[in-house]
Fold this sequence. Notes:
One of its GO terms (biological process) is fatty acid beta-oxidation. It comes from Silurus meridionalis (Southern catfish). The protein is an alpha/beta fold. The protein has one domain: Alpha-Beta Complex (2-enoyl-CoA Hydratase, Chain A, domain 1). It has twelve helices and twelve strands. The strands form three sheets. It has an eight-stranded mixed beta sheet with strand order 3-4-5-6-7-8-10-12, sandwiched between helices. Helix 3 (78-93) links the parallel strand 6 and strand 7 (99-104). Helix 4 (124-142) packs parallel to helix 5 (159-166). The longest helix has 21 residues, at 254-274. It is globular. Bound molecules: ligand L4XM7KOE.
Amino acid sequence: xxxxxxxxxxxxxxxxxxxxxxxxxxxxxxxxxxxxxxxxxxxxxxxxxxxxxxxxxxxxxxxxxxxxxxxxxxxxxxxxxxxxxxxxxxxxxxxxxxxxxxxxxxxxxxxxxxxxxxxxxxxxxxxxxxxxxxxxxxxxxxxxxxxxxxxxxxxxxxxxxxxxxxxxxxxxxxxxxxxxxxxxxxxxxxxxxxxxxxxxxxxxxxxxxxxxxxxxxxxxxxxxxxxxxxxxxxxxxxxxxxxxxxxxxxxxxxxxxxxxxxxxxxxxxxxxxxxxxxxxxxxxxxxxxxxxxxxxxxxxxxxxxxxx
Length: 308
Ligand SMILES: CCCCCCCCCCC/C=C/C(=O)SCCNC(=O)CCNC(=O)[C@H](O)C(C)(C)COP(=O)(O)OP(=O)(O)OC[C@H]1O[C@@H](n2cnc3c(N)ncnc32)[C@H](O)[C@@H]1OP(=O)(O)O
C-alpha cells in the first residue's frame, strides 16, 4: 500500500491508448489506513471500514459499494478525503472490482460538501494541504478507470455535488426535501474552474452559468430536468437501482468503456494536473482574505442558528 501511496499520478498504457490513474498522496495516509479493518471471504468478497468510509466488495459481481459514514453530515474533511481516496485507489488496483457505487450510510445526507471548518481559521499550510486533497479526490473520481455510479440518498451541496458529477451516472432519491447543486456563491465563495467545467460537461453552459452565479440548489425533480442527475427513484430503491444500472455498464467490454471514458475526460484531468500548484496558490490567496473568512464565519453561524 505504501508503494501505491508514494506513487503519484501516472499513465497506464492500454493498447494504443493511455488511461488515467490517480495516486493519493497526502503523506498522512499510513496512520489512517492502519485504523481500518478488513475481511475477505472465500468467494473473494471483502469488507473494510475506516472511520469515514465503509467498503463492501462483492467478488462474484465485481461491484463495490463505498459508503460515506462520517457523522453528522459526511462533510469532506482532510481525513475523510484521504480515506475515500485510499479506498478508491485500492479498488482501482483490485482486479476483482469492476465498478463502484458511492453512497451514504447516513440518513438524509449524501454529503454536506467540503468541511467548512477546514477552510476557516486555519493557517495557509493547512489550506494548501486540504486543497490538494480536494484536487486528489476529483482527479481520482473523474479519472477513475472503473465504473463509478453515485447513489445519492440525501442532500448533496457543493463538494458533494462535485463528487457526484465526477461519477459516470447519478441516481437520486425522490425526497423533495433533498437538494443538490454547486451553492458556493451563497457562501460568498467561488467554485474553481474544474468544478465549473465538471458542471458544464454535465448540464451545459447556460445552466451552469445560472447555477454558479446564483449558487442554485435543485430538488431531485429539477435536477433530473436539467440533467444534473440521470434518474430519480424512491429512496428505498436507490441502491438497488444503482446495482441494476452498474450491471448494464458491466456488459460493455472494460477496455472499450475505459478508453471511451478517458477520451472524454482526459483533457480536463490534464488541465488540472498542469496547474495544480497555481490552483492551490489561488485557493490559499482566496480563502485567507479577511472578507472570505468573514463570509465563511457568518455562514457557519447561520447553519448553527438555523438549528437553534
Ligand atoms: C477566483 C477564483 C478562485 C477560486 C478559489 C477557490 C475558492 C474556494 C472554493 C471552495 C469550494 C467549496 C466547496 C464546498 O463544498 S463548501 C461547503 C458547502 N456546503 C454547504 O453549504 C452545506 C451546509 N450544510 C447544510 O446545508 C446542512 O447542514 C445540510 C443540508 C447538509 C444538513 O442539514 P441538517 O439539518 O441535517 O444538519 P445541520 O445543518 O444541523 O448540520 C449538522 C452539523 O454539521 C455542521 N455542518 C453542516 N455542513 C457542514 C459543512 N459543510 N462543513 C462543516 N460542518 C458542517 C453544522 O454546522 C452542524 O454543526 P453543529 O452540530 O456543531 O451545529
